[in-house]
Known about the structure:
The complex is a heterodimer. Chain A is an all-beta fold. Chain A contains no helices and 11 strands. Chain A is globular and about 45 Å long. The termini of chain A are far apart. Chain B is an all-beta fold. Chain B is 0% helix and 57% strand. The chains are: A mainly beta, B mainly beta. At the A-B interface, strand 5 and strand 10 of A face strand 4, strand 5, strand 9 and strand 10 of B.
Amino acid sequence: ETGVTQTPRHLVMGMTNKKSLKCEQHLGHNAMYWYKQSAKKPLELMFVYSLEERVENNSVPSRFSPECPNSSHLFLHLHTLQPEDSALYLCASSQEEGASSYEQYFGPGTRLTVT
Amino acid sequence: QKEVEQNSGPLSVPEGAIASLNCTYSDRGSQSFFWYRQYSGKSPELIMSIYSNGDKEDGRFTAQLNKASQYVSLLIRDSQPSDSATYLCAVNIRTYKYIFGTGTRLKVLA
């Protein structure tokens, strides 16, 4: 595997379900991100982790719960979602803190539909 | 509010022409600037990064940065139908904080 991978690629869940999204980066980066992309809106930053420590949390509802067990893996746990949470969820990684470049690389995304 | 603004388009250009995509940003302290290409239903793909004023060329792509005018542009030479996509401008305003525009949809007509 290379780059940033995400599973599952597609997810349909009911409002009472609990599911998790998984992200893995193979780039040796020290920062990982969750973004939400809805139609006609710019990418919305949800969470940022640097070396397993959460450094950004942009007023995201508590029904979204991130977890970063190590610098290569990131999870987004979902429960009691609403239909308006249907979107493309993107994971990204970058090298911050002393890097010569700050390029951010995205995974393929998880298309989430909440019914 | 830190913003990145782009014309949503669509910008239509004939095959072989130069496509010019523009982006303005509001945070004067921004240091890093990026262009992503996003095909419909896919994730953003990084195509260019630029950190200092002037031009940066990579193949058919040229990024231009003017920090005084808070303006970033992307030129695509010899446009191909496969370049048809949405192009996102992104600005790194501080560590861990990237602001994205809503994107410009480009259509290259064969």
